[in-house]
Design goal:
The complex is a heterodimer of chains A (339) and B (229).
Chain A (H helix, E strand, L loop, with lengths): L6 H28 L9 H49 L20 H45 L5 H26 L9 E3 H18 L3 E6 L5 E3 L2 H18 L5 E6 L4 E5 L7 H9 L15 H11 L3 E5 L4 E5 L5
Parallel strand pairs in A: 2-4
Antiparallel strand pairs in A: 1-3, 4-5, 5-7, 6-7
Helix pairs in contact in A: 1-2, 3-4, 4-8, 5-6, 6-8, 7-8
Chain B lengths: L4 E6 L3 H13 L2 E6 L2 H10 L4 E5 L1 E2 L2 E2 H10 L6 E5 L4 H9 L4 E4 L4 H13 L8 E4 L2 E4 L4 E4 L2 E3 L3 H12 L4 E3 H8 L10 H15 L6 E4 L3 E4 L5
Parallel strand pairs in B: 1-2, 1-3, 3-6, 6-7
Antiparallel strand pairs in B: 4-5, 8-9, 9-10, 10-11, 12-14, 13-14
Classes of the chains: A alpha+beta (339), B alpha/beta (229).
């Protein structure tokens, strides 16, 4: 393995070698020209003369040439590499889920352009692969929906004591497919272009509560919305944040017995909190549920399935996280940026 | 027979369409069915339909684009869009094109039937002057209200509130939209004005035997729901 060296250092070494070789050649030339014998240098006057001669005709010209050359070289290198530094800064702020990222090599020196082009080609191929992956996952889920719809309609016509149970199973399957589609979207879809929308968390909370309240009331459970402190605004993708909150509220309604309450609290700060009548989740249990899908263990007694893993992904994509406050029976979507 | 609702279902999956037509028939809707947009255009011209049920991806085009053309051609009956896509952009573009509501496939027949009933309760060129929901019946022309066939009295504002809730029965109506609808913009509204009207209406409904119909979803709004059982 060779040690990494900066261009400036290479230039310094190169110029030193040139200086050394040049000085040696000049020295040889002068010695031959003047035919001075080395014995004559015993005389201090002659030696001083010889050194002055050497200084004026060897050292000085070399220094006069090499120092400005070195300076000019350093300036050229710094100027030529500055656009690379700027491009690197631009790449650093790109999030992992952003699409269509390209190095802008308009200001690059010619020598660096082939490299930049090669990297751009690679980025384009990765983008393409991610898009295909997303499209495939969405296709699979989409294709599954029609047969599911057919079975649901067949069941609707079926007058059999087992029909309600089968219908419930079918509903669970539909939920799983919805979650798979959502996961495909979170993982691959460009959150970037819609990431800059300013969203009022209270508005999202009101939407989700309105959507789920009819079935909650039907099941004899109480679902409500409250706010603590100022109305928080976050930047992000409305659809996925709403899906994350919906996941938490649906889980909360599942673990809350009839007659119990689920409350969505907005704030304080950029937070959405879901409080339920269940037993609460310890931080360890929450981590286990989030990790669950990585072990391909989809079955879950809590009925959370892929849900919490997806919620955690959505929060990570927004620079936040999913937290649990077991003593308050609360799950928290926290958008506070991690400093 | 005037009250028989005639629907037009535009869906290219024959099996799905047959089952859906049968399911809707069991719930008292007679439903025509067109497997392509071209046939839907013929059907809509040949028969008067009360509600259109439109699938998105059809062999000869997008249901949303077709709906936009039909709206331009003057067909204004309410439309329910069926889609397997649940992206928000779809929803927005669908509602822009003149869809009145939107159901994500695979939807239960009960859900589709409930949405159709809700669409028929909305104000529109073909909407009825009488609203029925559970034991309630409201005649909008004479402003008469009946519960289990017995008339009861409401103030003007309570009546307006009941009408708004009835038109979206089964769904939560946001408090701010009620505030905007019930009060003129220059009218001073106290923070609890809507709430007070709601509790007066709830009391009157309870008095005439409509128990547990008017629900408060705290922090969001109110919902009218058929009494349980």
């Amino acid at each position: 393995m060779t040690a990494r060296r900066s261009i400036a250092r290479r230039l310094f070494i190169g110029l030193s070698i040139v200086g050394l070789v040049g000085a040696t050649l000049l020295l040889i030339f002068i010695i031959r020209e003047h035919q001075q014998s080395f014995s004559a240098l015993g005389d201090p006057e002659a030696a001083r003369h010889a050194f002055r001669e050497l200084f004026e005709h060897v050292l000085l010209p070399i220094l006069v040439l090499i120092l400005p050359m070195g300076m000019a070289g350093l300036i050229v290198i710094r100027r030529a590499l500055a656009p690379l530094g700027r491009a690197a800064d631009q790449l650093k702020v790109v999030g992992g889920l952003e699409r269509g990222v390209m190095i802008d090599h308009a200001a690059f020196p010619t020598e660096a352009v082939p490299f930049a082009r090669a990297v751009n080609d690679l980025l384009a191929r990765l983008d393409q692969a991610a898009r295909e992956h997303e499209a495939f996952a969405a296709d699979v889920a989409h294709e599954l929906r029609t047969p599911l719809a057919v079975i649901a309609l067949e069941l609707d016509a079926l007058d059999h004591p087992d029909a309600p149970r089968l219908r419930a199973e079918l509903l669970a399957m539909r939920r799983l497919i919805d979650q798979l589609m959502l996961l495909a979207r979170v993982e691959a879809q460009s959150l970037a272009h819609s990431m800059r929308d300013m969203l009022e968390l209270e508005e999202i909370g009101a939407d989700v509560v309105s959507l789920l309240a009819p079935s909650a009331i039907g099941a004899g459970k109480n679902l409500s919305l409250g706010r603590v402190g100022e109305a928080p605004v976050v930047t992000g993708q409305r659809e996925t944040i709403a899906a994350a909150l919906r996941n938490l509220v649906e889980n909360a309604l599942r673990v809350t017995p009839a007659g119990g309450s689920v409350t969505v609290l907005v704030g304080p700060g950029p937070r959405l909190r879901v409080k339920d009548g269940g037993t609460g989740l310890t931080a360890e249990r929450l981590q286990e549920l989030i990790q669950r899908h990585r072990r391909a263990d989809h079955a879950s007694r809590e009925g959370a399935g892929l849900g919490l893993a997806i919620v955690a992904r959505i929060m990570a994509a927004h620079g936040g996280r999913l937290d649990s406050l077991p003593e308050a029976q609360e799950l928290i979507l926290d958008f506070t940026p991690i400093s | 027979m005037a009250s028989e609702m005639r629907l037009l279902l535009i869906e290219d999956n024959h099996r799905l369409a047959d089952l859906l037509v049968a399911g809707l028939a069991r719930r008292g809707f007679s439903c025509d069915y067109a497997p392509s947009l071209a046939m839907a255009t013929e059907a809509i011209a040949a028969q008067v339909h009360d509600v259109l049920i439109v699938d998105r991806g059809l062999p000869d085009g997008d249901g949303i684009a077709w709906l936009r053309d039909m709206r331009r051609a003057g067909y204004m009956q309410p439309a329910l869009v069926l889609t397997a896509r649940d992206a928000l952009e779809d929803r927005v573009s669908g509602l822009d094109a003149g869809a009145d509501d939107y159901v994500v496939k695979p939807a239960e027949v009960d859900e589709i039937a409930a949405r159709i009933r809700a669409l028929l309760r909305r104000p529109g060129p073909r909407s009825e002057t009488q609203l029925r929901f559970g034991p309630l019946k409201v005649d909008l022309a004479s402003r008469a209200t009946l519960c289990f066939g017995r008339p009861f009295d409401l103030s003007r504002r309570e009546m307006d509130l009941l009408e708004l809730l009835l038109r979206q029965a089964g769904a939560v109506v946001r408090r701010d939209s009620l505030e905007n609808a019930l009060y003129a913009f220059n009218e001073p509204v106290t923070p609890n004005a809507v709430e007070a009207t709601v509790s007066r209406l709830r009391r009157k409904l309870e008095d005439v035997g409509a128990h547990g119909m008017l629900h408060t979803v705290r922090g969001v709004g109110y919902m009218l729901r058929e009494p349980a059982g």
